[in-house]
Amino acid sequence: MPFKYLPDIALADIAFEVESTSVDGLFEDCARALSDIMVDPETLGSKTSRRVSLTSEDLDRLLYDFLTELIVIKDVDSLLFRDVQVDVGADGKALTADLRGEPIDRVRHGLRNDVKAVTMNMFGVRHEGSKWKATIVLDI
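Given the sequence above, the corresponding structure tokens read:
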């Protein structure tokens, strides 16, 4: 599993940390961690696809906006995603994500938590050696 939960960081929220060898991989694993918090991925199919394009002022804000967009899609369109492919632009200010998942089925899906928002508490993207890392705290 490319991410780990940080249970001692926030008691009322869920925190996790992700690391990857690429920015694209970091964004993809953050999206997978978010999805894993919301639903058992083993119960989620990939019948529906969606493409998301975003621009932001910097890489931190781009990740924040991307995860927020996934939460908005869950709340507005009742879609959850299990397959995520992200292409972050070279300047770190834009991305295109291809998402595959399906509409929420409360009977078939192993729903876990209803994530309300990404918080700015401890939020950050950093490049350490050959790894990209992010710390995320979600309001549930």
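The mean pLDDT is 94. Try to locate this feature in the token string yourself.
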